Every structure is written in structure tokens, then in C-alpha cells.
Amino acid sequence: MSIEQTLQARSGGQCELCTSQDNLSVYDVPYSPDTTANSCVLVCGTCHDQLQHPDNIDVNHWRCLSESMWSQEPAVQVVAYRQLSRLSSESWAQDNLDMMYMEDDVRKWAETGQDIEEVKVLDANGVALQKGDDVTVIKDLPVKGSSQVIKQGTVIRGINLTDDPTHVQGKVNGQTLFVIAEFCRRK
């Protein structure tokens, strides 16, 4: 049985977070201890999009977590905990977070993910950069191992973030390069 079939059976064919039955897909919970269905959640298109792009969050959509946070599935609990933590400035979310119960190993999994997600990549002005941002290089930068120089004012479109919070990745003159974030300014 595939992971999706397992999740369909487990969830009764509905989103494990908001109970929608539309556009269901598998969401792999980041920083999972394994790669089985136990580390995945079946989610609708709306939940999936907002989990992938937390900057486009619809706060009212996530009120559904007041029900799903009580799930017996650890992966669902982890996603609920992380979303409630992101929304903790909302009083209802903080109240739910205060009431939420998880086993110690599940809480550790949820918090480990939170610690990693809190690392921000900052540009020269201290502005947090996100995947897909366009940045401008603020000084001439020599490319290591090459005679090439990235000139001041060069725009790097649609950057990617890396595991190292001091670097961003983008294409310059058709070549993918890593650039030190502090020498960039968000456009």
C-alpha cells in the first residue's frame, strides 16, 4: 500500500487538518524521524499551499487546528503545534497551544523543526530574505575560483535559500552562484 493510500485510509479521505475533501495531497512533515506514512499528513490544497508558503497565511483558516490538534497521529500533532506556534500572536492560537498535549518525543520533533525554521537570512539592511526574492548586489564581488566579478548593481532574481543562513543562491549571467547575503539588498 502506498503512502497516499495509507493516509487516505487513516484520514477517511479528508484533510487531516481542516477536514476538506478537495485537492488532497501528501505533505511530508519536515525534520521527520522516518520516511513512512507516520511522518506525513494528508492535506487539502489550501493547507498545503499555506504550509509551503507561510508568508501567505490566512489566519482564520487555521482555526480548524482547535480540533485537529487532538489527533492521535503524531505527524498531525507536529503540524498543528508548528502552525499554532506561528500564529501565537493570535489569542485563540496561544490558548490552543497552552492546552495542547503531546508525548515528549513528539514535542521534541515539533520543537526541533521550530528551532530550524526560525533561522533567518538577512540582507545588508537586516531585512529577512525569502525564497523567490529579487536582490541587488551592493558591491563588486569576486567569484571564488574564477576571474569573474559580480558587479555592484547586478540584480539576482528569484533567489533560493541555502542551509547556510549567510548565503543565498541565484543565477548570475546564466551561472548558478552562491552569494553572501550581507552583500545583497532586497528589491
Automatic annotation (TrEMBL):
PANTHER family: PROTEIN YJDM, PROTEIN YJDM-RELATED. InterPro entries: PhnaA_N_proteobac, YjdM_C. It holds the Pfam family YjdM. It comes from the Bacteria. Residues 6-52 form the PhnA protein N-terminal proteobacterial domain. This is PhnA protein N-terminal proteobacterial domain-containing protein.
